[in-house]
């Protein structure tokens, strides 16, 4: 199924790719990518000869009905791995465990250090609990990846994609073996994560924002709510003035 989906994506969107030579022909490696679109997890595997496994929320695999079964089959076909995300701590541990199992089999594991899609196309601070821990516990090299223009292919909230040609830049592998055995040190985890994010920023050309994307999404939502309330209040005030004017003219 991966061959079918990957071939269809390449034929339809013609994604360009740089740095394929940085993907090892065999053995474990971690692909750490920026995250602009839902389609990132499909375009990256499409241009690789090797299977790459990403983490996906369990709901994609357990939804009822024909649509649910088709969705589950699609995600399995493109190498998505279901993880129960109920409970923040449990979800993190489950993701790390799944990643280590993939790498122990000598396969490629894909991860988005930002933890969620960028709300505005900028690059946000990486979360150290996943990427850095997996890198230090597995000893696998980390390969930085930049997805480019995938948010234009499928903007957030849109179901049907646009025919835009996306790009993928793959950087040179990063070796963090010097930190092995230090996965319990939060300063080391932060340092590893920041080094990877810097490389992704160089590859993508994105503006870097030193806050988590989840916090940025909350700020955007709060701002939208504030503006909506202000517009509602202004509209109500305008109606009140119109009523007063009508009454005054009677």
Automatic annotation (TrEMBL):
InterPro entries, per the entry: Plipid/glycerol_acylTrfase
Domain Phospholipid/glycerol acyltransferase residues, every copy: 29-150
Gene Ontology molecular-function annotations: acyltransferase activity
Keywords for the protein's UniProt record, in alphabetical order: Acyltransferase, Transferase
Region (Disordered): 225-250
Protein name per the record: Lysophospholipid acyltransferase family protein
Organism: Streptomyces roseoverticillatus
């Amino acid at each position: 199924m991966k061959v079918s989906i990957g071939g269809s994506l390449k034929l339809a969107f013609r994604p360009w790719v740089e740095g394929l030579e940085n993907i090892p022909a065999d053995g474990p490696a971690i692909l750490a990518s920026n995250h602009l679109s839902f389609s990132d997890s499909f375009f990256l595997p499409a241009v690789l000869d090797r299977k790459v496994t990403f983490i996906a929320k369990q709901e994609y695999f357990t939804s009822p009905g024909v649509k649910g079964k088709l969705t589950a089959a699609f995600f399995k076909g493109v190498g998505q791995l279901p993880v129960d995300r109920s409970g923040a701590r449990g979800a993190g541990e489950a993701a790390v465990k799944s990643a280590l199992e993939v790498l122990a089999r000598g396969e490629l594991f894909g991860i988005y250090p930002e933890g969620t899609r960028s709300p505005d196309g900028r690059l946000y601070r990486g979360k150290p609990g996943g990427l850095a821990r997996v890198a230090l516990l597995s000893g696998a090299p980390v390969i930085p990846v930049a997805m480019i223009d995938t948010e234009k292919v499928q903007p957030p909230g849109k179901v049907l994609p646009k025919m835009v040609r996306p790009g993928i830049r793959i950087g040179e592998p990063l070796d963090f073996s010097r930190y092995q055995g230090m996965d319990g040190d939060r300063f080391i985890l932060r340092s590893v994560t920041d080094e990877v994010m810097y490389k992704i920023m160089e590859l993508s050309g994105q503006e870097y924002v030193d806050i988590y994307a989840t916090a940025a999404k909350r700020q955007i939502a709060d701002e939208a709510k504030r503006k909506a309330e202000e517009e509602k209040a202004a509209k109500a005030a305008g109606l009140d003035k119109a009523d007063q004017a009508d009454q005054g003219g009677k």
